[in-house]
């Protein structure tokens, strides 16, 4: 399941992207619309953190081309944990950089790079 924050009809919404990534269906977050407008999918995370069930996915499915995707968490509360070198092609791409294994015998995808980014860097 891929959760997305998107803009449609002049308002921010949270929805579920279809498996083929062609449509988006809104998640019913009634009572949290103010939170959705200011924090996007963070409103869903807060709903779930309260021990509530995943809200219903309902309403009109929209073609992805009809909406504007936004950063899932438009205003993260803290630094974001990021993982790089987390798949083989990326590890191979980084072989010739400072982000390589020191041990020449190690596999190229043996370990990931973990780093943080400040919330202000989130754009989409």
Question: What is the secondary structure topology, with strand pairs?
Answer:
Elements: E1 2-8, E2 11-17, E3 23-26, H1 33-39, H2 42-49, E4 62-63, E5 68-70, E6 80-84, H3 88-93, E7 113-117
Antiparallel strand pairs: 1-2, 1-5, 2-3, 3-4, 6-7
Overview features:
two-stranded antiparallel sheet, alpha+beta, 7 strands, 124 residues, 3 helices, 17% helix
Condensed summary:
By secondary structure, this protein is an alpha+beta fold.
Describe the structure.
The protein has 2 domains: 2-70, no CATH class; 80-118, no CATH class. The chain has 3 helices and 7 strands, in the order E-E-E-H-H-E-E-E-H-E. The protein has helices at residues 33-39, 42-49, 88-93; strands spanning 2-8, 11-17, 23-26, 62-63, 68-70, 80-84, 113-117. The strands form 2 sheets. The chain has a 5-stranded antiparallel beta sheet with strand order 4-3-2-1-5, covered by helices on one side. A two-stranded antiparallel ribbon has the order 6-7. A hairpin with a 5-residue loop joins strand 2 (11-17) and strand 3.
